[in-house]
Amino acid sequence: MTQFNKRDFLRFAGAGTLLTAASGHASQTAAATPACADPFAGLKSMTVGVEGITLAERQSRIAKAQRLMAENGIDAMYLDSGTGLEYFTGVSWGRSERMLAAIIPVEGGVTYVSPGFEEERLRELMTIGDDVRTWEEHDSPYERVAQILDDVGASKGTVAIEERVRFFLFDGIRKQRPNATYVSADPVTIPSRLYKSKDEIRLMQLANDITIECYKTVIPMLEEGMSPQDFINLTAKVMDGLGAPGGRIWCSFGEATAFPHGSMEPQTLKKGDVVLMDGGCGVKGYRADISRTTVFGEATARQTTIWNLEQQAQQAGFDAAKIGSPCENVDIAARKVLVDAGFGPNYKVPGLPHRTGHGIGMDGHEWGNMVLGNKTPLDVGMCFSVEPMIAIYGEFGIRLEDCAYMTAEGPKWFSQPSVAVDQPV
């Protein structure tokens, strides 16, 4: 890789502004031509020509949902904009105060509810169904939903509300049709989304491959005096160059690494600091989530010992993932390694203050948590992180996170775990 100094690094990572090495503050002065070549010039997109989820697969998802609805006595399911809507219909739509939704009946086709002025944009995205009920700015979108429930015979039946539907939307619907029975859509959506298809795993694998490539590119760019935001900006630039815009990797330094999601205290990187990095990207709607921990400079014996213990705990969690065994076994096995070494017990710090893993797919965190009490048996297609953490307040924290997916033969890693404290990727 081309060598460049910190000022050049900050210039390129700052998305059009110049960050001064001395202050880290943005300057409105246009950046001069750097003294070295653009360190990002050699990046190549890894997503060119990648195919997303097929129409046939989405149609099969709706068919499965309708079968599960029938089994659970559900007459219609309401989906708000978000990953639930995208999962079933392929429509990706940002959330606002204006309702954009889909209703899936137990029998028949999908119907959409859209602001009138958004209808044509929605139709550009639609591949399933052709029925769009529009509402104008002075209209009530809840009346449109009520009309659909009437049409499908659900106005006095059972209506399932997907878990991430915002309350004001649900409240408006039930006021329009108070005689319906409203229930959670979890019996439909969880069995649908918990088990990934081959194509879903393919897209998640690519997201993980890109994230690892980003780590390989940015870890050598760690430089004394940089801030976590400098690093985040850099990873966003690299992700963009690798064909995964919007991806990024968060980080913290030194004592702040003991906090699982970082600290608000200002940080600048110095020799001997533990560096905890966590993040990923998405490909065609499917996510990666990988954590790496290293030491900037030479690791102490204490840092190395704790890092090695964390590695053992992660491996123990992975080894405990067996077809038919409960999800909680992953947490139990990983936590036991740490408790046996004198940490914890339970969520006590110094030790592991959170669950060992979470489900992952279109959302970074989904159903399928590796946590005590989750008796759900592991089965083919389930995807989850294995990320026990050792948090030692006042010193540092070590977290190694890789995601795995279940096959008939057992778990497989999406990304290969770290080898050593000085070989994080």
Task: Tell me about this structure.
This protein is 32% helix and 20% strand. Helix 10 packs antiparallel against helix 11 (328-340). The protein has 11 helices and 20 strands. Strand 7 (158-161), helix 6 (167-176) and strand 8 form a beta-alpha-beta unit. The strands form 7 sheets. A 6-stranded mixed β-sheet has the order 6-5-4-3-7-8, with helices on both faces. The protein has a 3-stranded antiparallel β-sheet with strand order 9-10-13. A 3-stranded antiparallel β-sheet has the order 16-19-20. It has 425 residues and is of the alpha+beta class.
Quick summary:
The protein is an alpha+beta fold and 425 residues long. The chain has helices at residues 6-13, 55-71, 83-89, 119-125, 141-151, 167-176, 186-193, 198-218, 228-241, 301-319, 328-340; strands spanning 18-19, 26-27, 76-80, 101-105, 111-115, 131-135, 158-161, 181-184, 248-253, 274-280, 282-283, 286-287, 290-295, 357-359, 366-370, 383-386, 389-392, 396-399, 402-407, 410-413. Strands 6-5-4-3-7-8 form a six-stranded mixed sheet, sandwiched between helices. A three-stranded antiparallel sheet has the order 9-10-13. A three-stranded antiparallel sheet has the order 16-19-20.
